[in-house]
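Handout, section B. The chain below has 95 residues.
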Amino acid sequence: MFLKVATAWGTSKPLKAYLLASLAGKLATADPDRAERIAHSITDKNTKARALASVAGMLATTDPDRGERIAHSITDKSWMAGALARVAKPYSRVA
C-alpha cells in the first residue's frame, strides 16, 4: 500500500522519500531485504539516512550483524552513530 501511494505521489519527491522511508521501517522485521532495498533507493540523503537507521535499529535484536552493516552504510555520521547505538543497545546492559 505504501509503495503504491509513494509511486502515485511521485511528482512530490520529499513526500515520496518520506513514504518510502516509512515503508522501509515498517517492513524491516518482516522483509529486511526489501526494507533495505527500499531505503537504499531513496535519493534524498537525510531521508535515506533516517530510513537506513530505522531498518538497522529494527534488526538490532533479530540480526545485529546485518543491523551493524546497514548502520555503517549510512553516510551521515550523526545518523550512523544513532543507528549503531540502537544496534548495540540490546547488548549493552550491565549485569
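Note. The chain has a mean pLDDT of 87. Compare this with the example in section A.
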